[in-house]
Specification:
The N and C termini lie far apart (126 Å). Helix 2 packs antiparallel against helix 3 and helix 3 packs antiparallel against helix 4. The chain has four helices and ten strands. By secondary structure, it is of the alpha+beta class.
Length: 264
Amino acid sequence: MKRSSSKGEANDGVKGSIDWELRPGGMLVQKRQSLDSSSSPMIKIKVSHGSYHHELTVPAQSTFGHLKGVLATETGLEPKEQRLLFRGKEKEDEECLHMVGLKDMSKVVLLEDPASKEKKLEEMQKSEDILKAWEAISTVRTEVDKLHKKVVALETTVFGGTKIQDKEFSILTELLMLQLLKLDSIAADGEAKVQRRFEVRRVQRYVDTVDNLKARNCGAFSNGGNMNAVPVIWEAFESGVGSLKSPTSFPTSTVITKNWEHFE
């Protein structure tokens, strides 16, 4: 790459020292200057960002892209999220400050890119939705934990040989199904969706357990469709398995009648 330089005042009226360089294709352009503060004068720039104001000191020959990098540490906005306006016009990253007339104490307006701002709002909304989903799932999990204790208690009673009314099974099933409806109404994504699926399967297992206990309860205590005909007595064998047997017969000296005595 060939380079040429012109010192002093050029014929075009531009004062000072101007270095030129020849680009591929034969185009003669001004040589890009280093941003080293030792070789470039520093200028102070006022940047207005909404209700905030910043004063930055940068090399006079730096670009707007460099200025965005400095502003990123001040505002938290990435360079691609920034739009810089000088004298009412948006400036490109490769434009130099001194070439557009920006001097010491000049004012630049910083705007957040609308697309970037909208994306941030969507991410914030998504984060809020995820948090709400977690809270809703946690609430259901607490209720399911309580219902699980009732399922365990019911299981212990049935296997202990005690007759339970059918409505107890129905009530517990309805309460479990209510939690399924709550889980179904929760909009969840990602890990929250995984946790919701886990709770759904958990509730479904408890519903199946209650159905099995109800069937066992009805089957064990029914006798030809008339479960009140014969009292149920459990007899334990050495193997530990319970069995039904008829009630102990009355002594021969006992007389059974159907004459009832009324008490006042």
